[in-house]
Fold Protein MIZU-KUSSEI 1.
Amino acid sequence: MPSVMETPGLVSLLRHTTEDRRTKMGGGGGGGGGIFRMFKLLPMLTSGCKMVALLGRPSKGLLSDKATTITLFGYRRGRVSLAIQEDPRSPPVFLIELPMLTSSLHKEMASGLVKIALESETRTHKKKLIEEYVWAVYCNGRKSGYSIRRKQSSDDERHVMQLLRGVSMGAGVLPCEKETAEGELTYMRARFERVVGSKDSEALYMINPDGTGGPELSIFLVRVK
């Protein structure tokens, strides 16, 4: 099976993303600003495929209700989970624990560019793409391992989603219900622009609220033929 960076749909998608972002950013990359800095700056929260033709990117109303909400969260010395919500006040439509440590993801984010790709080898035509269960996970082109989409949220995951119900974007440390040896419970939450290439591929691009260049986070989901 080809690696994630060799998949035709993703190669086309990544190429488009790079060119589009470079145009928007005037050829330069934002090094260390934006939402990734919030891991250190925000205080603790105490209140509750083939992309032949890509959809046009909106220039106004980037934080509209149609944007998808994505949360990356996990204990610092534990694994990181990814939750996709169509409505930040509703349960996730896609929830998976990634085969990588939260601390490792934080290090990748410090570089200012993170591309997470999930590939499903299952060809169940009756299912939507996000309904597939088994996924190969890649981060910045390197394979991290395999994960299985959760059918139901755990108590810890429901706790995180409940705390973040009123949060549209941000990053920091969440209060824990109990002490754990895995360290603080960290999160990053943002709005994402969703681009559907076909029934077998889609991409989500983090929306920078101030519209300027800065660190990039993209998530790709592909069903491999």
Summary: Confidence is low (pLDDT under 50) at residues 1-34, 38-65. The beta strands are 68-75, 79-85, 94-101, 113-120, 134-139, 142-148, 170-174, 185-198, 201-206, 216-223.
